Amino acid sequence: MSRGLLIVLEGGEGAGKGSVLSAIAEWLQAQGIEPLCTRAPGGTPEGQVIRSALVQSGADWEPTAELLLMMADRAQHVGRLIRPALAAGRIVLCDRFVGSTIAYQGGGRGLSSSVILDLQKIAAAEVTADLTILLDVPPAIGLKRSLKRLAEQNSSEDLFERLDLSFHERVRASFLAQAADDPKHWAVVDASRVIAEVIADVQTRLAGLLGKRSAA
Ligand code: TMP
Question: Is 101 in the pocket of ligand 1 (CB under 6 A)?
């Protein structure tokens, strides 16, 4: 059986990853493809426990402890969900992956990218994204959107949203640098536009990838 595809959506707060992911899943379903939709942190029941501890208001982790918890989530997520799905030939749509760890714990918290990549090798081994789509939005716009959504949902998962603008500017710069360093595996989409335009742009990028796969 052919290996599946791992497609990752990345971006800062309020980039619209959730809405884009649902729209893409429906678009694939209309083509007879049933994707596995998941997210990090929290894509498994065990990861959900880690997520609750990590992103709640008021959590106060050492940056290294935060990194190790993200990586514990990664190992569980890849081992129990993503790798088996890829081995079964499925398309996996994942909301955040290692790009977020490099952007948030590397760019944002200032931890070493090479340490993060070493830990990623331990946590995920050979599992890498076939395509990472960066939904790029200026943090001043994204944070406003995100805080509004958290208030509407009465959610207290706002640890990162409460950090200052300069943290989020570093996260954005790291995402853009990762995309520029590896244009074969990353695509940047301007997510400051209306959501329908963002979704159409993402569909165009994915159509290219799916076309290549069915031709192979
Ligand atoms: P979410 O709000 O997009 O679901 O993600 C939860 C938060 O976790 C988000 O603020 C980014 C953060 N995060 C990291 O800091 N490092 C990581 O490796 C991942 C996957 C997420």
Answer: yes
Q: Is the pLDDT of residue 105 over 80?
A: yes
Q: Ligand 1 pocket check: which of 56, 61, 104, 134 to mutate, most ligand atoms within 8 Å of Cβ?
A: 104
Domains of the chain: 5-215 (3.40.50.300)
Distance of alpha carbon 57 from its chain centroid, rounded? 21
pLDDT at 19 over 50: yes
Ligand 1: centre distance to CA 202 (Å): 21
* Residue 70 CA, ligand 1 centroid: distance in Å: 8
- Do 177 and 124 meet the contact criterion of CB atoms below 8 Å apart? no
pLDDT at 2: 60
Q: What's the 215 CA to ligand 1 centre distance in angstroms?
A: 35
Claim: this prediction has a pTM higher than 0.90: yes
Give the per-residue pLDDT at 94: 98
Contact between 191 and 15 under an 8 Å Cβ cutoff? The reply is: yes
Ligand 1 mean position to 194 CA, how many Å? Answer: 23
